[in-house]
């Protein structure tokens, strides 16, 4: 099981239980960008499973293409979704969706779609630098420095457009990577905090700020919030213990000498 699955479920359950109205309204604009994600993930999973089943450059090349596009499409479209949420959607005076099916195809959301793949690629090369040593670490560190520049530029552009001030976190992550602190680099780029600038808005409205959903008018009843608070008190420590245990198990750096001879 993916080590971040518990976090995904926690986020989904928390959002649904605490802000059901906001989740319902965003579903209207999430439909278009999310439609291709499932087929892309299926193609990606099949490529992982079958790429090594046969020998031949053509087979491997096609498998690599499926892995590439099956990873790029979800990364881009999730960025479009997040960009749409940060920008807001058209809500009328009754706080009901008043936009069109094509609202996610706006420049800000598309910039978000470019930003998330850049961040994911940066994470992908920073993590080997964090967990390896020797030649692999040096190559990963060099790749992180180059790709981190692109990611930082896109993040700053995205956050500047959103009138947020968290761009310094991404910059700090890139600077930390240059000085060999991959842990801080990974943390810095992972916790940009796009939604910090939205508080107290849960879902802004492009048709007028007074029509937006905030943490008061979009929240569940106090009884449900109390139940979910107690659930968080019980399950959040368990999730943290699980995540800490997985990190502890894989805490050591590895190098080329740790790779079995038959896999070199």
From TrEMBL:
Q: Which PANTHER family does the UniProt record give?
A: CYTOCHROME BD-I UBIQUINOL OXIDASE SUBUNIT 2, CYTOCHROME BD2 SUBUNIT II
Please report the name of this protein according to its UniProt entry: Cytochrome d ubiquinol oxidase subunit II
Question: Which parts pass through the membrane?
Answer: 66-88, 108-127, 148-164, 224-245
The record's comment on protein family reads: Belongs to the cytochrome ubiquinol oxidase subunit 2 family.
Q: What Pfam families does the entry give?
A: Cyt_bd_oxida_II
Where does the UniProt entry say this protein principally localizes?
membrane
Source organism's superkingdom? Bacteria
Query: Highest lineage ranks of the organism?
Result: Bacteria, Bacillati, Actinomycetota, Actinomycetes, Streptosporangiales
**Protein topology in the membrane:** Multi-pass membrane protein
Any one GO biological process = aerobic electron transport chain
The keyword Ribosomal protein is assigned to this record? no
Single GO MF descriptor: oxidoreductase activity, acting on diphenols and related substances as donors, oxygen as acceptor
Keywords linked to the UniProt accession: Cell membrane, Electron transport, Heme, Iron, Membrane, Metal-binding, Transmembrane, Transmembrane helix, Transport
Spell out the GO cellular component terms annotated for this protein, sorted alphabetically and separated by semicolons: cytochrome complex; plasma membrane
Query: Coiled-coil regions in this chain?
Result: none
Query: Which species is this UniProt entry from?
Result: Herbidospora solisilvae
Q: Where in the cell is it found?
A: Cell membrane
């Amino acid at each position: 099981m993916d080590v971040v699955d518990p976090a995904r479920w926690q986020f989904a359950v928390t959002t649904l239980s605490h802000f059901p109205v906001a989740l319902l309204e965003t579903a209207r604009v999430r439909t278009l960008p999310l439609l291709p994600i499932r087929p892309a993930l299926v193609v990606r999973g099949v490529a992982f499973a079958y790429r090594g089943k046969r020998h031949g450059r053509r087979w491997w090349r096609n498998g690599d293409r499926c892995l590439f596009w099956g990873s790029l499409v979800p990364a881009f479209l999730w960025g479009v979704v997040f960009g749409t949420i940060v920008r807001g959607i058209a809500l009328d005076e009754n706080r009901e969706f008043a936009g069109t099916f094509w609202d996610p195809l706006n420049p800000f959301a598309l910039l978000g779609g470019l930003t998330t793949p850049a961040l994911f690629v940066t994470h992908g090369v920073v993590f080997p630098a964090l967990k390896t040593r020797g030649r692999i670490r040096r190559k990963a560190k060099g790749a992180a420095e180059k790709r981190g520049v692109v990611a930082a530029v896109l993040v700053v552009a995205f956050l500047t457009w959103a009138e947020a001030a968290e761009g310094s976190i991404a910059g700090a992550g890139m600077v930390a990577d240059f000085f060999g602190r991959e842990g801080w680099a990974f943390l810095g780029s992972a916790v940009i905090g796009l939604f910090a600038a939205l508080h107290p808005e849960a879902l802004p409205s492009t048709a007028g700020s007074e029509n937006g959903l905030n943490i008061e008018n979009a929240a569940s009843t106090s009884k449900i919030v109390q139940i979910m608070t107690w659930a968080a008190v019980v399950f959040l420590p368990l999730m943290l213990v699980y995540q800490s245990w997985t990190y502890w198990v894989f805490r050591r750096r590895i190098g080329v000498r740790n790779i079995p001879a038959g896999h070199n």
